[in-house]
Design a protein that fits this description.
Number of helices: 8
CATH class of the largest domain: Alpha Beta
Domain Beta-ketoacyl-[acyl-carrier-protein] synthase III C-terminal: 253-351
Mean pLDDT: 94
GO biological process, one term: secondary metabolite biosynthetic process
CATH superfamily of the largest domain: Thiolase/Chalcone synthase
GO molecular function: 3-oxoacyl-[acyl-carrier-protein] synthase activity
Number of strands: 13
Keywords: Acyltransferase, Transferase
Strand order of the largest sheet: 1-7-6-4-5
Number of domains: 2
Domain Beta-ketoacyl-[acyl-carrier-protein] synthase III N-terminal: 129-194
Radius of gyration: 20 Å
Distance between the termini: 15 Å
């Protein structure tokens, strides 16, 4: 027994933020010195490296759990199930509900509990909890849900990934241009081994890599000395991901029993277009194969990096026919993979 996806949903916030939004920002470095390049040059380099031209921000009245609720409602509607039959609601995020104009994270009660409440689920034995696992959090939630289903203690699970990274960025850090808001969700249900999740893998690299992504002070120590924001060492993350993610994908594929030629799509965390392409190329190089055309759908150009939301949101777009060059048909095999804060890596092989 394994689990299959029977419903998908997402929420792409309405507020489109182009790179022009950052034209008047005062970007400085770690030493507090103004960057020498103009903001136009910084934005152009961002596009060349990450592919990002636009990103979406949540409306000022919304918080992360609101976004997750909408994605969850879509997934439930798509699955045509009674939400009272859910055994688990697993909500992957990293910063909780951060209200617009504030800096305080609110995670009590859990975001999963908030969504369950708003769905008006009366079943007390539908367990709601959160997962904090960096950007790979949604995949980890899927892996946990699959374990519950395989063990027989659950039949159906709702797994949500949502984040409002726009609320935790340092406006003086050019890396703030990468981040976005969004949500995605799936309903998983028990099925036989001919479909659904065929293999999975997770890893946490913490000995030397723990602080590649972290919460740190603003580069502008005068205006906001005590507030912390999401920070990253982009070069170290790139080098780490390029070495370790392809290896993890290869191990996961080997566990599944499928071959490299069986893979129809690779849905990877939308972190950085250049990095993601390098990861997938390296994955195929490990198999002495060239990277096939149209194997890796990308929407980061218009949606930015919304952390845990990127993969489930993209999956819904593909299954909904919103990406003309990418379809997933019955019996096709898809490799899902992610990397992020921790540093964590995970992947799973799925047969549709």
């Amino acid at each position: 027994m394994t689990s299959k996806i029977i419903g998908v949903g997402n929420y792409i916030p309405p507020e489109t933020i182009t790179n022009l939004f950052f034209d008047q920002h005062h970007f400085i470095n770690k030493s507090g010195e103004s960057l020498k390049e103009t903001n136009a040059v910084i934005a152009q380099k961002l596009k060349e490296i990450t592919g990002i031209e636009e990103r979406r921000y949540a409306s000022s009245h919304q918080v992360t759990s609101d976004l997750g609720l909408i994605a969850a409602q879509q997934a439930i509607e798509d699955s045509k199930i009674d939400p009272e039959t859910l055994d688990y609601i697993i909500f992957a995020h990293n910063f909780g509900d951060v209200r617009f104009g504030t800096v305080q994270s609110d995670t009590v009660p859990s975001l999963a509990a908030r969504v369950k409440h708003l769905l008006k689920i009366k079943n007390n034995f539908c367990v709601a909890y959160d997962v904090l696992f960096g950007c790979p959090g949604w995949i980890e939630g899927v892996i946990q849900a699959n374990a519950f289903i395989k063990s027989g203690i659950a039949r159906r699970c709702l797994v949500i990934g949502a984040e409002t990274l726009s609320r935790v960025v340092d406006i003086h850090d050019r890396d703030s241009m990468i981040y976005a808001d969004g949500a995605g969700a799936v309903i998983l249900e028990a099925c036989n081994n001919d479909c659904g999740i065929q293999a999975h893998l997770s890893a946490s690299y913490t000995l030397n890599e723990k602080d590649y992504l972290y919460f740190g002070k603003s580069y502008n120590n005068e205006s906001c000395p005590d507030t912390k924001y999401i920070k990253m060492d982009g070069r170290k993350i790139y080098e780490f991901a390029l070495v370790n993610v392809p290896e993890a994908m290869k191990l996961c594929l080997e566990k599944s029993g499928f071959s490299i030629d069986d893979i129809n799509k690779i849905i990877i965390h939308q972190a950085n277009e250049k990095m993601d392409e390098a990861i997938v190329k390296r994955f195929y190089q490990l198999h002495n194969k060239p990277m096939p055309e149209n194997i890796m759908p990308m929407v980061i150009e218009k949606l930015g990096n919304s952390s845990v939301a990127t993969i489930p949101s993209l999956l819904k777009m593909i299954l909904n026919g919103e990406l003309p060059l990418h379809q997933i048909r019955r019996d096709e095999v898809v490799l899902f993979a992610s990397v992020g804060a921790g540093m964590n890596i995970n992947a799973f092989i799925y047969k549709f």
